[in-house]
Design brief:
nine-stranded mixed beta sheet; binds zinc ion; about 325 residues
């Protein structure tokens, strides 16, 4: 039995037909975890959908109304890049409920993983890039509303920048905020990447992503690490280490939200970085080690993953569970 819970429902499946987003990955991850005895049936918790009130903590009433009445404009549907349906709306409400449950559970178990979620391209008033509802932001705002946490840090390791996250939590940022101090020695060793940032507010956002990739417009996170095309394991891990140290020097989160995208993988169809499966597991280990050392609860969501062979995406995301098991046993 795992020393933490996995949040999963068969209804996490996104009804989007044949699509580059492998909606069946959630069930495959669950099945692989069971068949390899990494987890057993008792490790899983079934989430409830978020309430409309929860969703409205992040999203505008106008946008929520359009989703619930199926009245998005053709342009809004196009931006979403997944075919709209009432069933899809349900799946996103459930993903948000799963993230709320994972966040809550992590406060008692130190870590919790939702085998779903991580829809970091959703904005308050629109969805884009396969993301309708920002489940992680909803979870943060719900726990804050319940007085369970005051502050949170998002650590977004999906290959695509967390534009929705940056936009949602940018509200309290002021232009005069100082830049974070950056370790020059690390920058010297890894001159190709670029770290930039500014922060104010109750949620600190970190995004490590490929610079030359979607989204074209990248609203500023508290720390953005813009990685060059083809960056590999060693550079990536050094930048992640640097960004985590820099972020945690400036900010004390009550909760860490790890968005563990599988798409920095070198075989990814929508990514242009060169991480190996081994390197991605080291990435997970680093995040968990840092969180554990500082006693910060971690909730994990899985975000993107478009490997040519979907089994690789399943392996990478199962490895996140294995890394958590190793770190928190
Ligand atoms: Zn992605």
């Amino acid at each position: 039995m795992l020393p933490f819970k996995l949040i999963y429902s068969d209804d996490y499946y996104l009804p989007i037909g044949a699509h580059v987003f492998p909606a069946e990955k959630y069930r495959r991850i669950r099945d692989r975890l069971l068949s390899t005895s990494v987890a057993d049936a008792k490790d899983f918790l079934e989430p409830q959908p978020a309430s409309d009130q929860d969703i409205l903590l992040v999203h505008t009433p106008e946008y929520v109304h359009k989703l619930k009445t199926g009245t998005l404009s053709p342009r809004e549907e196009m931006e979403l890049e997944v075919p709209f349906s009432p069933e899809l709306v349900k799946a996103f409400w459930l993903a948000a409920g799963g993230s709320i449950l994972a966040a809550r559970q992590s406060l008692t178990d130190r870590v919790a993983i939702s085998i779903g979620g991580g829809f970091h391209h959703a904005f308050p008033d629109h969805g884009e890039g396969f993301c309708m509802i920002h489940d992680v932001a909803v979870a943060i705002r719900r726990l804050q509303r319940d007085d369970k946490i005051r502050t949170a840090m998002t650590v977004d390791c999906d290959v695509h920048q967390g534009n929705g996250t940056a936009a949602i939590f940018a509200g309290a940022r002021t232009a005069s905020e100082p830049l974070p101090s950056v370790s020059l020695s690390t920058l010297d060793r890894h001159p190709a990447g670029k770290m930039r940032g500014a922060h104010a507010g109750d949620v600190f956002t970190i995004s490590l992503h490929q610079h030359n990739n979607y989204p074209m417009w990248k609203p500023p996170s508290s720390i953005d690490v813009d990685l060059p095309d083809g960056a590999g394991d060693d550079d990536y891990l050094a930048w992640l280490d640097n960004a985590l140290s820099s972020g945690l020097r400036q900010f004390e989160p009550d909760l860490l939200c790890y968005i563990a995208g599988a798409d920095p993988y070198r075989e990814d169809q929508l990514g242009g970085l060169s991480l190996t499966i081994k390197g991605l597991k080291k990435r997970d280990e680093l995040v968990f080690r840092v969180a554990r050392a500082r006693d910060i609860p971690v909730m994990v969501t899985f975000a993107g993953g478009y490997a040519r062979n979907v089994e690789d995406t399943v392996t990478i995301q199962c490895n996140t569970v294995i890394a958590a098991k190793e770190a928190f046993s």
